[in-house]
TrEMBL record:
One of its GO terms (biological process) is pectin catabolic process. Belongs to the KduI family. This is 4-deoxy-L-threo-5-hexosulose-uronate ketol-isomerase. PANTHER family: 4-DEOXY-L-THREO-5-HEXOSULOSE-URONATE KETOL-ISOMERASE. NCBIfam families: PRK00924.1 (NF002091). Transmembrane segments: none annotated. The keyword Zinc applies. InterPro entries: KduI, KduI/IolB_isomerase, KduI_N, RmlC-like_jellyroll, RmlC_Cupin_sf. It comes from Granulicatella balaenopterae.
Length: 279
């Protein structure tokens, strides 16, 4: 019912001579949404836990205590949730609320019981979650994409026209260090961001989705002057260390969820990379 894989941290020097298989083994999560199961990855990059909760015929609850040295999962953590699948429910401390596609939730430190379920097991909800350490209790907040004024970025000429929906963000709700959002590329656009950037003060994880079977995304990573890439399919995720760029380009438009944590929650705190500096 529940699996969690641990991924350790790497320096840029570590990956210099990685083969394609080794790079994928360390940074790519190939299966995020497993019907009837919870599939999580614990990265030691800022100790983020991310992954998919895909309930079918039974309710699912994340049970992590001994693994984290606590009495219950969110004793010292906060949690962000976004549903990218069918209709479902999220029950928090006994209060059950509907969660349609693109509904999200911020759940604060100290919440003991969070239970996930689907309306239709044949079209299950797919709850993408991200959890990071927290030092303060902030209120639980349900977040709908309909209530967010998206940032509109890019243009057709540069193939990166997109809408950025900030879910767990100071404009929407308070959090300790988690930021989480949902980006949708317009038809005809392929780049999620270019020119690219790093942010030494925060790590990030991406999950790409809303892709057709014959669509591929090339996720660019590595130091700006020594780039590498991961070839990714629908509903796969990847880890982006703070020293790495994180741009993607697809063979068609797509959507992705980004989640960040680290020293601050300043969305614009980025170290931009000039195009001529990329190698």
């Amino acid at each position: 019912m529940q699996e969690m894989e641990t991924r350790y941290t790497h320096s840029p020097e570590d990956i210099r001579h990685y083969s394609t298989d080794k790079l994928r083994e360390e940074f790519l999560v190939e299966e995020v949404f497993v019907p009837g199961k919870i599939a999580l990855t614990y990265t030691h990059n800022d100790r983020m836990i991310f992954g998919g909760v895909t309930p079918t015929t039974k309710e699912l609850e994340i049970q992590l205590s001994t693994e984290l040295g606590v009495d219950y999962f969110l004793e010292r953590r906060e949690l962000g949730v976004i549903n990218i699948g069918g209709e479902g429910f999220i029950e928090i401390e006994g209060v059950k609320e509907p969660m349609k596609k693109q509904d999200g939730y911020y759940i604060g430190k100290g919440t003991k019981h969070v239970v996930f379920s689907s309306v239709n097991p044949e079209n299950p909800a797919k709850f993408y979650i991200s959890s990071v350490p927290a030092h303060h209790v902030y209120p639980n907040v349900k977040i709908s994409i309909d209530s967010i004024n998206p940032l509109e970025a890019g243009e057709p000429l540069t193939l990166n026209e997109r809408k950025i929906y900030q879910y767990v963000h100071p404009n929407v709700c308070e959090s300790c260090q988690l930021q989480m959002g949902y980006t949708i590329l317009e038809p005809g656009s392929a780049w999620n961001t270019m020119p690219c950037h790093t942010h030494e003060r925060r790590m990030e994880a991406y999950v790409y989705f809303d892709m057709q079977d014959d669509t591929t995304v090339f996720h660019m990573m590595g130091k700006p002057d020594e780039t590498k890439h991961l070839v990714m399919q629908n509903e796969q995720a990847c880890i982006s260390p703070s020293w790495s760029i994180h741009s993607g380009v697809g063979t068609s438009n797509y959507s992705f969820i980004w989640a960040m944590c680290g020293e601050n929650i300043t969305y614009t705190d980025m170290d931009m990379v000039k195009m001529e500096d990329l190698k």
